[in-house]
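Quarterly update from the structural biology core.
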Amino acid sequence: MSNSKFRFLCAIWILAFVGQAALAQTVLLNASYDVAREFYKDINTAFVAQYKKSSGKDIRVDQAHGGSSAQARAVNDGLEADVVTMNTSTDIDFLASNGVVAKDWTKRFPHNASPTSSTMLFLVRDKNPKGIKDWDDLIRPGIQVVVVNPKTGGNGRMAYLAAWGQVRKRGGTDAQAADYVAKLYKNVPVLAKGGRDATTIFLQRNLGDVLITFESEVVSVDREFGAGKVDAIHPSVSIVAENPVAVVERTVAKKGTQDAAKAYLNFLYSDEAQEIAAQHAIRPSNPAILKKYAATFKPISLFTVDDFFGSFAEAQKVHFNDGGQFDRLYTVK
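Predicted structure, tokenized:
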């Protein structure tokens, strides 16, 4: 056999081997909410290493991010995500109602399938030039508030429910809460599509005096735009925003990735993943790790969705479905 023919056959063999190895590698897709991209980038790196060590197998995790409701609709319409990691349960409930995830998805993992949580706070410009300290300041004349559209993102729904619920938490009625929220949205110049879009509007378009967003966005802003651009204001009262997760049963049945998808979501409860969450200012469910990062997670009087809205499903129906409270209170600009 000539050297050239031998080299040619070797090349064919190598390409075939590489191709088989590529086919053998499991690939997961995580469809997630807008502002979690940096967190899951670090989670994926850690999980890939852990999975290789424990199973001896290679795995890759791809990410898809956007407004959480838009992501849920994309998965429902055929996006082949193996897992969904959202910021409100209504988006996963929507998928469960269509048979895309398990009906009992909240029972498949600990803490109602929420390995982490967050809360809503305010980002203001450096040194807080408008002197914003608490919710009452957001409805002052002339204050512009940047917030996500609650129709398209869980970030927006949590901001809305936080604004409503803080009135109730401080002893107000639903009528007073409705009045407050109406005044708040009169100060909203434009509704963002998702959490990262809201941050871009606030920092790149330089629109608004205050951004209502998840606590974790403080870390993301400092990393992406540089420290010192914003100050974080922790209001006296805010909402518990759980971050629920689920296996996309329709996809894993088709791809045969059920075990890998479950391993990925179980990893989110590990000490390593909980530490990564805390480093991203996402509240871990592990109480010892939460306590360890007490300097990051300032004390806030927190309430849950169930406290004032019955459930997320009820809140969705009353406030965010077409013709609900939000549509009655907000006038499109």
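The chain has two domains: 3-115+242-292, 120-239+300-329.
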